[in-house]
Design brief:
472 residues; alpha/beta; Spore Coat Polysaccharide Biosynthesis Protein SpsA, Chain A; Cation-dependent Mannose-6-phosphate Receptor, Chain A; 3 domains; 26% helix; 21% strand; disordered N terminus; binds 2-acetamido-2-deoxy-beta-D-glucopyranose
């Protein structure tokens, strides 16, 4: 929802400062990680009386910000993630008024119920050229708490174009003691956005979670608090400001993705951090994530994998094919890449810059909050990509995901690689323990002895103690 490009055009002085600052973004990120990533020592309880039942989907309540105008289209996103869990999901989609009957073309009983937001005309909004709906959207936090659901551990908020991976959110939040005050989310991929808004803010479109104990207190103080922030642009800035006034800082969970990017987000998806995928956002503004598909079809395709092994989604393992000197990167449920040479692990993990900035004109190093590597201008020098074709649960709980070679505009690729058409990846269903979530370790993979020239088979497993991932 944060459309920074709309609002900074007039602020040229700020832009100049911003350009200077953003070249130091790496430093800023480092500082912010140091500040944000610290464990909350005060919140650590480990005595036996603190043991409670594991967190499940029915402990969550979702508050989704939408509108009469956007819901008829955007509900297609909600269908992807709400419908499969329909009977366990609680929450509301907040609209300014109910969309007209003719837009109810599908069975909406499979979607979250619609709630009409309260009137916010008495609140001040003074951000020039901004949208005052930011107040209504910010108050989704308060109005979701006011639904009075029982036995709530976490409130999860997002926009109507936020795609959640609910079981991964449950898994991730179960790391934290919901009785303490937590504000969990992630900031923008764009340094400029983070510099302008805050490195400490959970971006609303990426989605964020607030523990119920914090949410209840926040709801009580919310209205008088947001009056103090009438000069801010967005809804998430208001929520962030009031949580900050309560003395609480962001707990960073990099599985939430605001996706303040344009174009092809392949690079971002193929190099996901080792942490469950929690959300994707802004997919109206990016290319479809699979070639030759519409956005909607491509997301359905992604969910074919997510519905089989949600926790393994986009988890990246790298193996080396010694005989051919190939580097093979598996981003599970999405893509397999073969680099026809030796690429060391730290370089494979860099995000390929396949996308463009959310706000262009800033084509300088340090635009993103992660390390990127430019795409080679010669398509022949890029890795060969194999996109997810299908996922099936084979015998004995082995999951087989197949990836098919994408078109590459190159005529002189190495013969041995040219023949490769399909990669099959054999995995077990991933079920991370709390300890593995707290201290994640990348998995290892092995290339199986080949049975056909056009096909490669790969298995993944936990790495052995002391095992290193490199070309032997
Ligand atoms: C809508 O969903 C309900 C509940 O699952 C079902 O009973 C009903 O048949 C569906 N209606 C249509 C038109 O698909
Ligand atoms: C929730 O509880 C509050 C306080 O008890 C009450 O004022 C409010 O009407 C309730 N809301 C709903 C939706 O039941
Ligand atoms: C799955 O994909 C592979 C590779 O693209 C293909 O050979 C296989 O027939 C597909 N299986 C199904 C059930 O569609
Ligand atoms: C994409 O679609 C076109 C037209 O349907 C087809 O010719 C082409 O082979 C497809 N490409 C891939 C990579 O599937
Ligand atoms: C492939 O590359 C050539 C040379 O760069 C270009 O002329 C051609 O249009 C490209 N073909 C496709 C299908 O992108």
């Amino acid at each position: 929802m944060l459309l920074l490009h709309k609002i900074t055009k007039t602020q040229s002085l700020k832009n100049i400062i911003l350009l200077i600052i953003s070249s130091f973004c790496g430093t800023y990120v480092l500082v912010s990680l140091l500040l944000l990533g610290k464990p909350k020592l005060l919140n650590v309880h480990s005595s036996s009386e603190d043991v409670f039942e594991p967190t499940t989907l029915d402990h969550l309540v979702f508050g989704i910000a939408s509108s009469k105008a956007s819901w008829p289209k955007r509900k297609e996103y909600a269908k992807l993630w709400w419908e499969p869990n329909n009977n366990k999901m609680r929450g509301c989609v907040f609209v300014d008024s109910i969309p007209p009957r003719k837009d109810h073309t599908t069975n909406d009983t499979h979607l979250p119920p619609l709630c009409i937001s309260e009137d916010t005309s008495q609140f001040r909004y003074t951000f020039r050229n901004g949208l005052r709906s930011a107040i209504r959207v910010a108050r989704v936090v308060k109005e979701t708490v006011a639904l009075n659901h029982s036995d709530v551990r976490w409130y999860v908020f997002g926009d109507d174009d936020t795609i959640f991976f609910p079981s991964n959110i449950v898994k991730t939040l179960s790391k934290y003691d919901h009785r303490l005050w937590y504000y969990v989310g992630a900031n923008s991929e764009s340094c400029k956005q983070d510099w302008f808004f805050s490195f400490g803010m959970a971006y609303g479109g990426g989605g964020f979670a607030i523990s119920s104990s914090l949410a209840k207190v926040l709801a009580k103080v919310f209205d008088p608090c947001i009056e103090r922030y009438h000069h801010l642009y967005g809804s998430d800035g208001r929520v962030y400001s009031c949580i900050t006034e309560l003395g609480i800082t962001l707990t960073l969970e990099p599985g939430f993705h605001q996706v303040d990017l344009k174009g092809n987000i392949f690079g971002l998806l193929a190099s996901h951090p080792i942490t469950p995928l929690l959300s994707l956002h802004h997919l109206d503004s990016t290319n479809p994530i699979f070639p030759n598909m519409t956005t909607s079809k491509s997301l359905q395709h992604l969910f074919e994998a997510a519905n089989v092994d949600s926790q393994r989604m986009l988890q990246q393992t790298v193996c080396y094919h010694k005989q051919f000197s190939w580097t093979i990167s598996v981003s599970w449920g999405y893509v397999v890449q073969i680099f026809p040479n030796h690429v060391s692990l730290p370089d494979v993990l860099k995000v390929q810059e396949t996308f463009k900035e959310w706000q262009p004109k800033n084509n300088i190093a340090g635009a993103y909050t992660f390390n990127t590597i430019p795409l080679h201008h010669d398509p022949c020098k890029r890795p060969i990509t194999f996109y997810l074709d299908n996922v099936s649960s084979g015998k004995h709980g082995i999951i087989i995901s197949s990836y098919r070679k994408a078109f590459q505009n190159c005529s002189y690729k190495m013969a041995s690689l040219q023949q490769m058409e399909v990669i099959k990846v054999f995995t077990n269903k991933l079920d991370l323990s709390i300890k593995q979530l707290q201290a994640p370790r990348r998995h290892c993979c092995d290339v199986l002895p080949s049975r056909a020239r056009d096909q490669m088979e790969i298995t993944t497993r936990e790495c052995k103690i002391g095992e290193l991932i490199y070309m032997h």
